[in-house]
Amino acid sequence: MHVRKCSLWAPSSCVWNATENPVALPGVTVPFVTKWIDYSNKYGFGFQLSDHSVGVLFNDTTRFGLSADRTRIEYHDTSGKLTVHDASALPTFLQERYSLLKYFAHYMDENLTEGGDVVQPADAAKKKKCIPFMKRWVRTAHAIVMQLSCTTLQVNFFKDHTKLVINADRHQHPVLLYIDEERRAAAYALADVARDGCDDSLRGRLQFALSALGEFVEVELKEGA
């Protein structure tokens, strides 16, 4: 087999074509967005994660996160400073944002379906030290691209509802999660994809994701993030 070596974060042209995908990783899960609501014309962008924590990136760039057990709130102000609060003893100045977050969460629970059939470990939420927050997002004609603080880039494709998640939280073994049209999920070692290639369906989506990742990296460099 011809092997083309390349960096994991190389340009999208480095992802070469193969007749099939690498062997999937058994029992591997990564955090990803299962539901989202774009209310940026008025308030901001709300989302739910696979561990059932929820968050909002408000239009003023503040960020608000609520833990899966609904007891802990994490608030990032406009400077990025983090404060942690008990949901039952929230400061007055955060009450309005909390009400909006609960509204978003209720809407997503009542009106949106889960983004994929991925079973998270029962203690996944307990192991997290911080609630992942939305760093930035962009919506195009074909997809929505979301970058989370937990070293996750996610692309949801509108036409067929497939999803691609790149997670580098496992520093030595970055993971690629693909959720297909039937909501079936498969996780691959990104190193395996870079070494062995992948099929046409996954390759095209990965090219799009890597291109978006490159643009986000440029934004972070300009912002000094």
Automatic annotation (TrEMBL):
<dbReference type="GO" id="GO:0005524">
    <property type="term" value="F:ATP binding"/>
</dbReference>
<keyword id="KW-0808">Transferase</keyword>
<dbReference type="InterPro" id="IPR033701">
    <property type="entry name" value="POLO_box_1"/>
</dbReference>
<feature type="domain" description="POLO box">
    <location>
        <begin position="133"/>
        <end position="218"/>
    </location>
</feature>
<dbReference type="InterPro" id="IPR000959">
    <property type="entry name" value="POLO_box_dom"/>
</dbReference>
<keyword id="KW-0418">Kinase</keyword>
<dbReference type="InterPro" id="IPR033695">
    <property type="entry name" value="POLO_box_2"/>
</dbReference>
<keyword id="KW-0067">ATP-binding</keyword>
<keyword id="KW-0723">Serine/threonine-protein kinase</keyword>
<protein>
    <recommendedName>
        <fullName>polo kinase</fullName>
        <ecNumber>2.7.11.21</ecNumber>
    </recommendedName>
</protein>
<keyword id="KW-0677">Repeat</keyword>
<dbReference type="GO" id="GO:0004674">
    <property type="term" value="F:protein serine/threonine kinase activity"/>
</dbReference>
<keyword id="KW-0547">Nucleotide-binding</keyword>
<dbReference type="Pfam" id="PF00659">
    <property type="entry name" value="POLO_box"/>
</dbReference>
<feature type="domain" description="POLO box">
    <location>
        <begin position="32"/>
        <end position="110"/>
    </location>
</feature>
<dbReference type="GO" id="GO:0005737">
    <property type="term" value="C:cytoplasm"/>
</dbReference>
<dbReference type="InterPro" id="IPR036947">
    <property type="entry name" value="POLO_box_dom_sf"/>
</dbReference>
<keyword id="KW-0963">Cytoplasm</keyword>
